[in-house]
Amino acid sequence: MKNRFFYYQLLDEREEQLINKAGTESFYVFIGLILFSYLVAVLAPSLFNPSMLLITIIIGTFYFFNRARQLGVTYYSRFHFTIGGCLLVTLAITTLLMLQNYQFNIEIYQHNPLNVKYLSAWVITYLIYLPWVFIGNLGLKSYGEWAQKKFDQDMDELESTD
Known about the structure:
Helix content: over 70%
Number of helices: 4
Radius of gyration: 21 Å
């Protein structure tokens, strides 16, 4: 069965293995920092700040890209969402935002998740984020096309030198 939510193409198997190695190492760093945050939250709750989790995600991401660069990864695989995938990602973003919106504004919605104000906020939030997801997807697609051209160009240069 073909995946209908995203498109993925592997450029180079060796590069994919290096990316997986960098991802595994950054996952270990991420898990260690999350465990540290959990211990701080349990042992010293007054020192815990929820932004520590965001900082952990940022550190893990930077570590991943830095480690991939150190390993010599130059080609990232092509990846972008299909139209159905973009709609699904937008729905996921909207769901996260609207669950938090309901939690903070439960009095305004009169403790009713079927309130007209709340349902219209779902529609408006979805329509606001949909173009941004499509723009981000176009960026992923154009980056993938550029990476494919660069990969093909480097392979041609490598063949011409032999």
